[in-house]
Design brief:
The structure holds two protein chains of two kinds. Chain A contains 14 helices and nine strands. Chain A is α/β, with parallel strands linked by helices. Chain A has two domains: 4-51; 57-308, 2-enoyl-CoA Hydratase, Chain A, domain 1 (Alpha-Beta Complex), CATH 3.90.226.10. In chain A, strands 1, 2, 3, 4, 5, 6, 7 and 8 form an eight-stranded mixed β-sheet that branches. By secondary structure, chain B is α/β, with parallel strands linked by helices. Chain B has two domains: 1-58, no CATH class; 60-280, 2-enoyl-CoA Hydratase, Chain A, domain 1 (Alpha-Beta Complex), CATH 3.90.226. Helices cover 37% and strands 17% of the residues of chain B. Chain B is built from ten helices and ten strands. Chain B has a seven-stranded mixed β-sheet with strand order 3-5-6-7-8-9-10, with helices on both faces. In chain B, strands 1-2 form a two-stranded antiparallel sheet. In chain B, strand 7 (161-167), helix 7 and strand 8 (199-207) form a beta-alpha-beta unit. In chain B, helix 6 (141-157) runs parallel beside helix 7. The longest helix of chain B has 20 residues, at 175-194. Strand 9 of chain A pairs antiparallel with strand 4 of chain B, so a sheet runs across the interface. The structure holds zinc ion (ZN). Zinc ion binds next to loops of chain B. Residues 32, 34-35, 37, 51, 53-54, 56 of chain B line the site of zinc ion.
Chain lengths: 315, 294
């Protein structure tokens, strides 16, 4: 799948492949032309990705070829024991988690999981957890705390599921409880927005000592589409809504609402998933080292103080 | 109070703001939107803004709740000077500062929550009460900050905390900042809980969105008034998701009680006494000193 701003680049890349094939078939030396074209592609990429609009970043965050939660876990760790169920109602497939070995260190990974094809997307409910998902996440966090293992959450959701049963089983209560409980966790907690960070459904697993965003992700109180429909009373203002919400990684860092940005490969995480996964692993290892050097009560009070300062008022 | 015509009621609530009702001199009439019964305003006020016939609970503001709860309507309001900034320079069909200024003029309120310390039947109580008239009771930085400070105040003075929620959810014009108020207030409630200070959350009509998914659902006691709408997703969104009409009474306080998320529903006329009784039972046991041996 190509996004509109990816098309000119893809066209040049197609041309480059043709040229290379031609050179191979006809033994003609086109190395100069190839080199020129490569330079041109690189320049166009740099220019394109340096000047993306906020809406274009949102599009990248939803790219169907982006690595998802399980791709990161499998790519970063040596062993992964997936754990299921909230011990009350069900096993929510939109929220996955389990212990994994990250270079000799046991880490509890938890995250929303999206699907890649129609069947998987339905199984994963498009990455929209029900209350069971949030309760499963909390159960796994408490398990990690019990055994003194750090927690890493990977956030990628268009929102908590707004369904009938979700309301009956207390979607609001499930998220609220996670917020309160996550503040008191004695082990290090790192939260990474790897795709979409939509509202309470994202925040429900995003209270951490460090909250990081990948470069081409978004995190806000509402999606640009829903914001458009409520404030402009039309679905047609999503670009304006994205601008107004200031929902990109750079915006959120500038506002002091997240702690850092993890750079993506030029063109986005989907253009080189291996590179992306390695980059995130490096950041995670470094951040875990930093956090593990602090005593638990210090981490908790810093976590509370950090969120306690968020907001701007006139007094 | 069996009929649950939520949409209808919300519209009526907007057409008849409390401010107008307050200005209505006694002797004028109040018409119940639920059963059509007409009562004079003095009587309506005496019944704490509930219908004498069908017990419909009229939506009221912080001013009325303070009057209902605090002895002789005496209380000290906290953090009265806070008002909204515009950190994101948010413009939709109107610039955010204009929207705030217009709403402040129209309502006489600074923002969507007021916090106060007073006595309820002689017992100290800190109350944070939301005002739905202020941009749908939406939660921005001011709401989050005032609630956070009220919780800190309650914890430092070891006074029970009562949160009266009434909100459509997050304030979109504060985007990421608005979202983080859910986190901030929950952090403060974690500390309050650890300190063993009682927290009662009263969810009133309507309580939805990010407010439900944070402080409103975190009470040691979650309680509500008859017929209040309580939910995470709004009824319209759910209806669009499932593509069907919602069952009658869906997301009513009675429905939420039935599903296990409320401790009880209280008639507004019994609210003050019920809260007093409950808090009284939570007071630390007084151990009588043994008689001095002679
Ligand atoms: Zn009536």
């Amino acid at each position: 799948m190509l996004l509109d701003f990816e098309q000119p680049i893809a066209a040049l890349e197609g041309k480059l492949r043709e040229m290379q094939k031609l050179a191979q078939d006809s033994q003609v030396d086109v190395s100069e032309a190839v080199e020129a074209l490569e330079t041109k592609i690189k320049a166009l990429k740099k220019e394109t990705y340096a000047n993306l609009t906020r809406w274009q970043r949102v599009q990248l965050s939803r790219h169907p070829d982006r690595p998802y939660t399980l791709d990161y876990i499998e790519g970063m760790t040596q062993k992964f024991v997936e754990l299921h169920g909230d011990r009350t109602v069900a096993d929510d497939k939109a929220m996955v988690g389990g212990f994994a070995e990250l270079d000799g260190r046991t880490v509890m990974f938890i995250g929303q999981q999206k699907g890649r094809n129609t069947k998987q997307r339905q199984l994963r409910n498009f990455g929209m957890p029900n209350p069971e998902g949030y309760r499963k996440a909390l159960r796994l966090m408490k398990l990690a705390e019990k055994f003194g293992k750090p927690i890493v959450t990977l956030i990628d959701t268009p929102g908590a599921f707004p369904g009938l049963e979700a309301e009956e089983r207390g979607q609001g209560e499930a998220i609220a409880r996670n917020l309160r409980e996550m503040f008191m966790l004695k082990v290090p907690v790192i939260c990474i927005i790897i795709g979409e960070g939509a509202s309470g459904g994202a925040l429900g697993i995003a209270i951490g000592d460090r909250v990081l965003m990948l470069e081409n992700t978004w995190y806000s109180v509402i999606s640009p589409e829903s914001c458009s429909s409520i404030l402009w009373r039309s679905w047609n203002y999503k670009e304006q809504a994205a601008e107004a919400l200031k929902l990109t990684a750079t915006d959120m860092l500038k506002a002091g609402l997240v702690d850092g940005i993890v750079k993506e490969p030029l063109g986005g995480a989907h253009t080189d998933p291996q590179k992306m996964i390695l980059a995130l692993k490096k950041t995670l290892t470094k951040t875990l080292d930093e956090l593990e050097a602090l005593p638990a009560d210090e981490r908790i009070s810093q976590r509370i103080d950090k969120f306690g300062k968020m907001g701007v008022v006139v007094e | 109070m069996q009929s649950m015509a939520w949409f209808k009621r919300q519209e009526k609530g907007i057409i008849t703001p409390t401010e107008q009702k307050k200005e209505t001199p006694d002797g004028l009439w109040y018409k119940c939107p639920e059963c059509g019964t007409v009562a004079d305003m003095g009587e309506h006020r005496r019944l704490l803004y509930t219908c004498g016939k069908c017990n419909y609970h009229d939506r009221i503001d912080s001013a009325e709740y303070f009057e209902v709860l605090f002895d002789d309507n005496r209380f000290t309001e906290l953090d009265t000077n806070l008002s909204s900034a515009d950190p994101l320079h948010f413009v939709d069909t109107k610039a955010y500062p204009q929207r705030i200024a217009a709403t402040q003029r129209q309502t006489g309120l600074k923002d969507a929550v007021r916090t106060a310390h007073g006595l309820m039947n002689g017992q100290d109580l800190v109350v944070a009460c939301m005002d739905f008239r202020f941009i749908g009771g939406s939660m921005g930085s001011v709401v989050g900050e005032k609630i956070a400070r009220a919780i800190d105040y309650a914890r430092q003075h070891r006074i029970p905390f009562l949160m009266i929620s009434k909100s459509g959810g997050a304030r979109m014009m504060e985007a990421g900042y608005s979202l983080m108020q859910m986190a901030k207030t929950s952090a403060k409630l974690a500390l309050l809980s650890e300190a063993g200070v009682p927290y009662i959350s009263l969810l009133t009509d309507p309580t939805t969105g990010g407010v439900t998914a944070s402080y409103a659902m975190l009470g040691d006691f979650n309680i509500s008034e008859p017929g209040a709408l309580i939910g995470f997703a709004g009824p319209r969104v759910i209806k669009e998701t499932i593509g069907k009409d919602l069952p009658k009474g869906f997301q009513s306080a009675e429905f939420v009680l039935e599903h296990g998320f409320l401790d009880f529903i209280v008639d507004r006329k019994q609210l003050k006494q019920q809260l007093t009784d409950l808090l009284h039972m939570l007071r630390p046991a007084v151990v009588e000193a043994p008689a001095v041996p002679r």
